[in-house]
Specification:
By secondary structure, the chain is an alpha/beta fold. It has five helices and 13 strands. The chain has helices at residues 68-77, 126-135, 164-174, 191-205, 260-266, and strands at residues 4-5, 10-12, 37-40, 48-51, 55-60, 83-90, 108-112, 118-122, 145-152, 179-184, 214-219, 230-233, 268-273.
Amino acid sequence: MRPKLLISATVTLALVGAPLACSDDDTTTGDGAASGTTTSSTPGAGSTTVPVAGLKVLVTNDDGYGSDGIDAVVEALRVLPDTEVNVVAPLENQSGQGGKTTPGTLVVTDVTTRSGYPAKAVAGHPADAVIWAIDQHGIDFTPDLVVSGINAGQNLGPLLDVSGTVGAARAAGARHLAAVAVSQGITDYDFPTGVKALLEWLSANRAELVPGKMVNINAPSCPAGTSVLGTIEVPSATTDSSGNPFGPQACVAGTTPVDDVGGFNQGYVTVSPLEQAA
C-alpha cells in the first residue's frame, strides 16, 4: 500500500475551548467558526456546508473513564448535531492490556467524565467495555461507530497487539462494528490535535462506516515552533525498521514515509487500516 496524502474536510467545531497547538499545512483546510457543521472545499469551486449525518457513537478507551483524552473526544462529539454519545470505559487505567478479557460477571458503575458527562465504568480491560456494551446489552442501541481513545501515547506498528486502545477497537470490529482507535503522541499530549484529526476523518468517511471496518489514527504532538505536516494514509509498520515507535515527533519534512512509524515520527497524522491480531 503506497502512502497517500489526504485532503481533509475541516470540521468547524470549537474543540473543547482549546486552541490547537499544532496546525496543519496546506494538505488540510483551515479552521472555521463553531457551527456544528462540516465545511469542505473543492479546488476551483466555492465552499459548501454540509450537516453532519446523525450518529450513534460508543466511546471507550484504555486510560480509564476519567482521563483527559476520552474527555476531549466526548466533549467534541457530543456537540455535533443529531449525535448520540454513550461512554463505556475501564474503571482504571488499563494501558498495555491489548485484547485481554475478564471471565465472569463484569462489575459496572455509574460515573462521569472529567467534564461531567455520564459514563459507565467497567471493572476490567478495554475489550471488556465493548463486551459489556454490546454482548451484554449494556447499551440499548447498535453504534454506527466505536471510538477508542484518545490514548495518551502513540500506538504504532509493533505496538498494536499490546495496545488496549487498539484492543477495544478490535473487539468492536469483531462484533461487526465500525471502529477507530485514536492516539496522541508522547510526551506533551496535544489532545486538541488528536480531536481535530478524528473529526476530520469522521467528516471525510461518514458514508464509509462499514460494519467491521477498523482504522488506527495517530496524531503527533509537535515541538514548539513546528506544526503537523498534514495527514497521510500509510500501512502499519511490521517491524521497527522505520524508527522507534516510542520516538519523539520531529514535525520536519523528510523522505516520503512508507509506514505509520516513519510518517508519525516525521510529524504527520497517520491513518492506517487496522486488522485483527494474528
